[in-house]
Amino acid sequence: MNLLDNFNFFSYNCNNNITESPTFLNKTMNKYFSLSALFIVLSLLSVPGQSPQIINIENRNLFSLNGRWKYIIDPYENGYYDNKYKPFDTYEKVPAKAFFMDSRPKDKSDLIEYSFDNTGTLKVPGDWNSQEEKLFFYEGTIWYRRLFDNTLADSSNRLFVYFGAANYESEVYLNQQKLGTHTGGFTPFNFEITDLVKAKNNSLIVKVDNKRKAEGVPTLNTDWWNYGGITRDVYIVEVPSTFIREYALQLNKGSASEITGYVILDGAENETEVTVSIPELNIDQTVRTDETGYGEFTIKPRGIKLWSPENPFLYEVNIKTGRDKVSDLIGFRTIETKGDKILLNGNQIFLRGISIHEENPVRSGRAYSIEDARMLLNWAKELNCNYVRLAHYPHNENMVRLADEMGIMVWEENPVYWTIQWENQETLKNATNQLGEVITRDKNRASVIIWSMANETPVLPSRLNFIRSLIDYTRSRDDSRLISAALEKHTKSGSTNIQVVEDPLAEYIDILGINEYIGWYGGTPLDIAATEWEINYTKPLIISEFGGGALQGFHGDKGTRWTEEFQEELYRETIIMLDKIPQYSGVTPWILTDFRSPRRMLPGIQDGWNRKGLISETGDKKKAFGVLKLYYDSKEEEYKFKKGLK
Predict the structure, then answer these.
(1) Is the per-residue pLDDT at 15 higher than 80?
(2) Are 149 and 159 in contact (CB under 8 A)?
(3) Are both 524 and 579 inside the same structural domain?
(4) Which of these, 111, 136, 168, 435, has the minimum number of CB atoms within 10 Å of its CB?
(5) E strands of 525-577, at which residues?
(6) In CATH, what number is assigned to the domain containing residue 133?
């Protein structure tokens, strides 16, 4: 396909509003009109079978499919491929062997190798690794089945099946018809089922495959547990024939008093009126969408209460058209940089943070519930955090919604981790699509202040081009937040103790994120005091990781590795060192809790756990927890003094 063909195809899909909002498409055309930009856009417009993403699921008419699902383990994928490794769903009228066999009349004499009738069950949402001992290390395919009746009875409405996430590649079928495929373990997806659903005995089957892949995002090598399964909520969503699929409201960039936004209708055939109301601001504005269902608006209310950690104020926002209405709680705030400072609502802030994995260490397994989110964020609040880094992938929507309520700022991250196939265009398409899905989901959350592109990636020309494409895409979708990435520091050539950042990616991000483990990976805590930093960028610096391992309950002198005393001393020395860096604007030590990792197998110490947590897998706090809390208490007092609050 040549450039002209690309443009023609691009124009066709823009006019037909396939996946992305027109705002994104127009900005991409105007700002980034190049072959590489066209490739990104075209790629995102061609997710096979997947319906455009519906946002704000929790405030719609839902029927939950959470609960016990039947399952079949299929390591050789015999339910998907024939003996020539040809997918069954490429055969006419044979969607997939697993449920094709299961649906045959029972009086047939054919050899039945697959049947859900007598299988066990797995809890959804949930990972399979922590539910069944035999699946603890399993990586591969498992088939899930859930039978349900349609209790959403209005026949004039439309129905979608919605998945909060499933790791990593999902093939979805309803009543022997394939709905489509989704790739990515941490972002939502949905399919329309209006014409397929029956009143009784619907059979929803999902093939979930969590095999790591060289071309995947993330790739083969990570430092967290590869939890497989349908790990987040599953719902049937009922909406009118024309419904509000997506919307955005945020303060206009550079303004603390003007709200801009857009709304996208699905199913609209003509220009349509939409009402946007914010009762507390006495706003009741009519927006007219075009024939594609898209409409923009600007609101200039008086006296907006700005969201902040001290006052996490959320406005009730109602959007209505025809028979559809959605409500949301949205906060408004500004976030920007000025020189080497981070400004929230025009005031300099210091980000008192902690890194978090999406794992419940006490229950053991992937965190998925609002209770899980509350436990993790309450621990962060105990540390006196005003900020968290949700590493190394998009976390559950519960986390960012609760962060909105609790007044905790958030760094959200795309799973571009360590080294991936930088020159593979399908890998770029995958990374961009996952990034786009989390931006679509969370763009209305005031707590989200940073989109992170990657973590600890090597300095290569191909990697720079890859991540720059992600940055360009992100800025075209959302220019109201800051962009960062977790980079690596290096020792300055010719010195033994001067740390520098020598990464061309630093030129393209708003905030420098740096992971450093001085005193743990090389040296001891005694070496930290002699460390100096030279940061040749007038940009804010966040230390996105530092820390060291400790087995909770293992005590000794501060020079003995793996003791709580060693970790405690490392924290003491590190925070003294960091406070001397002029650009230092925040920190998210690694990490809140111990978490499972197959890379961490030291017997008697790690036993499959990364021990850098401040809290153990039993929920017990280590001594370094207290060191960090005292530090954050002092940073808060310093902030209040500078702001004149004391």
Answers:
(1) no
(2) no
(3) yes
(4) 111
(5) 532-534, 541-545
(6) 2.60.120.260
